[in-house]
Amino acid sequence: MSEGHPVFDAEATGEPPSSGSDATSSMDLAAIERHVQGRFGDVAADVKFGELSLYVKPSQVLEVLRFCRDDEALACAWLADLSAVHWPAGDHSIQRQPSTTGWPEYRIDRAQGVIEVDYILRSHTHNHWFRVVVAVDDTTPRLPSVTGLYPTANWLEREAYDMFGIDFQGHPDLVRILMPDDWVGHPHRKDYPLGGVDIPYQNDKFIPPPSQRDLREVVE
């Protein structure tokens, strides 16, 4: 989720150090996990496929991100990306994806739908990166804006608002960035209707939802 936004934060100057010998050797993922949990004892963590995820509460997100930015051992001066995924309520089976993500088949059963927001933090000083994850209720998703900590969050939060409807409170200009201003709904939510959008295709064709499509009828 990073089309056209400025690459470096305001406090960064010059070119970032490369991933070679110029960058200070980073802590391993286990050491980063212990370091953050030493400051925030209730932060959960896991490492999957060689990637560290730290799980925080919405009320903690500003404090945790500020710590990750300002702590000398972490020095994550760059919010490299902000992404989100919608997990609606109910029982869902996720099919195995060997040719894409590599994730195995698994099931999710949620009483309450959530939108999971991932903040991808990177340190050019120490040449490490990890994600901070926060989940919000999908009925009224709200989070504090982190634009005051990371200027790159400006356009990234606008995209998450546009695609998922997350209200980033305190954002300086929280308006749509991809869809028209008067668009109804948020296309990356899993409760958003697939197809059937009334668009004047050639020969007055209308593309129905996938469950109602006859491919031959659509392309003729």
List its salient traits:
9 strands; two-stranded antiparallel ribbon; 5-stranded mixed sheet; globular; about 220 residues; Beta Polymerase, domain 2; alpha/beta
- Beta-strand share of residues: 25-35%
Counted by DSSP, the helix tally is 4
Portion of residues within helices: 10-25%
Terminal CA distance reads 35 Å
The CATH superfamily of the largest domain appears as NADH:ubiquinone oxidoreductase Nqo5 subunit
Number of DSSP strands?
Answer: 9
**What's the number of domains?**
2
CATH architecture of the largest domain: 2-Layer Sandwich
Major sheet description: 5 strands, mixed
**Oligomer state of the chains in this structure:** single chain
Shape verdict: globular
The largest beta-sheet arranges its strands as 1-2-7-6-3
Q: Helix and strand string, N-terminal first?
A: HEEHEEEEEEHEH
Describe the fold and architecture:
This protein starts with 28 loop residues before the first helix and ends with a helix. The chain is an alpha/beta fold. Mean pLDDT is 82; it is low at 1-25. The chain folds into two domains: 29-185, NADH:ubiquinone oxidoreductase Nqo5 subunit (Beta Polymerase, domain 2, 2-Layer Sandwich), CATH 3.30.460.80; 190-220, no CATH class. It has a five-stranded mixed β-sheet with strand order 1-2-7-6-3, covered by helices on one side. The protein has a two-stranded antiparallel ribbon with strand order 4-5. A two-stranded parallel ribbon has the order 8-9. It contains four helices and nine strands, in the order H-E-E-H-E-E-E-E-E-E-H-E-H.
